[in-house]
Amino acid sequence: MSPFKTLSRSTIATLTAILLLAAGLRFYEIDQRGLFAYDEGWFLLEAKTLYDTIDYTWQKATGQDPGVPLRDYLKERGTVPVTTFKPGHTVLILVGYLIVGVSDLASLGVSALTGTLTVLLVYGFSSRAFGRKAGLLAALVLAISPFHIGYSRAGYAQANGLFFISLGLYLWYAHIQDGSSRWRLLLAGIATGYGFTCHFNLFLMPPLFLFFHLLCSWSSTLMDRARSTALFGVGMALPPTLFELPAHILRFAGLLPEGQWTYVEQFLYRGSLAGNLRFSLDGAHALLDKLVYSEGVVVCAALLLAAIGIAANYRSISREQVIVSLLFIAPALPWSTLSIGLPPLYRTFAVLSLPVAILAGYGLSQVAVWVPNRRVVAAVAAILLVTGWF
User: Fold this and answer.
1) How far, in Å, CA of 306 to CA of 310, rounded?
2) pLDDT category, 235, cuts 50, 70, 90?
3) Residue among 196, 267, 180, 265 nearest 235 (CA)
4) Is the pLDDT of residue 187 over 70?
5) How many CB atoms lie within 10 A of CB 50?
6) Is residue 387's pLDDT more than 60?
7) Is the predicted pLDDT of residue 26 greater than 80, yes or no?
8) How far apart are CA 352 and CA 294, in angstroms?
9) Are 229 and 217 in contact (CB under 8 A)?
């Protein structure tokens, strides 16, 4: 059953308070933040190039004369070659431009919005997987997560990518649980594929989703498994394909700038660097430091409780719950154990903010099982809130 149906008044009030808290921490003075990183400004300029191209095309279509060719029109307004194009992320910034105008807020506001909505999706998924109390606690953990808040207040692609991955996860798990129409599975694939188009470092999520989907549907007939997996995969392929096709058409027509790579070509080039990878635990050390110093000891303790809870209830816990628990942890393995000799980037670990929240919420909910006292649960939530805030 959907976790958004038959909500009690107390659940509605609690969830509303968590979402307001999440929105407040992400939107507070967002218009005064500015840009701190080169990439943030570059993404804005790439989106502005598209925005000015649309403006130029509109003028031509409505009989107005821009007075100069498109290339000169773009140069006059300041543009950049679209060389690090993250199409999914750039399109979202473009939507922000169309709503609020050309400003930093177009990018920062979209990240804050998708970051807030991700909190809602984490509640929905965790409620389905581990119960409503775990869902509320998971939403609270993510709402006050410094790691997630940081990307939700930035012009990077991480918050947007995580939103679509979370949407794909929720829709996929709803399909697995309810056996609902395959349209939901197709939408889950589209959301997951769009998440990949926001940034390369989510490239592991589509194959992982497909692999775990096969495991979860193992009891189905071979034909049903093949059909559902194919549908899921087609959905994932749609967003990258819709971005790739126009680029190849423009290249064929001679309109794509010389040396311009498509998104998939950029990704494949980075894949060619895999030969430089070496075993290293620098990423694991960086991740553990981030968990302790950013998320706090309470969240780390909750993760330990989750591991204990899953081990203690392994006979009663469903296969889907175990699989989902592993789903988001798996991407940490390559970033934690492989390196090309450069310092680890926390952006590569951004996807782990989701399992940290989900599993920490489950771990904290075990307190209510082992110590069935509402005051104890409220105290745990209060401690989590205070430690997360400070």
Assistant:
1) 6
2) very high
3) 196
4) yes
5) 18
6) no
7) yes
8) 13
9) yes
Give the Cα-Cα-Cα angle 178, 182, 186 (nearest 5 degrees).
115
Candidates 55, 161, 181, 176; CA nearest to 117 is 161
Q: What is the predicted pLDDT for the residue at 222? A: 83
**232 and 185 Cβ atoms separated by less than 8 Å:** yes
Q: Is the pLDDT of residue 155 over 60?
A: yes
109 vs 383, more confident: 109
| Side-chain half-sphere exposure of 159, counting CA atoms within 13 A | 30
> End-to-end alpha-carbon separation of the chain, Å?
37
Provide, for the chain, the percentages of residues in helix, strand and coil under a 3-state DSSP scheme, each rounded to the nearest 5.
Answer: 75, 0, 25
CA distance 197 to 236: 10
Q: What is the per-residue pLDDT for 114?
A: 97
Residue 345 pLDDT greater than 80, yes or no: no
Instruction: Give the pLDDT confidence score for residue 178 in this predicted structure.
Output: 79
- As given in the structure block, the two tokens for residue 236 are 């994932």
Q: Which of 100, 120, 223, 228 is nearest to 167 (CA)?
A: 120
pLDDT at 158 over 90: yes
CB 365 within 8 A of CB 130: yes
Question: DSSP letters of 225-293?
Answer: HHHHHHHHHHHHHHHHHHHHHHHHHHHHTT-SPTTPPPHHHHHHHHHGGGGG-EE-SHHHHHHHHHIII
| Collapsed DSSP state (helix, strand, coil) of residue 20 | helix
As a whole number of angstroms, the distance between CA 70 and CA 72 comes to 5
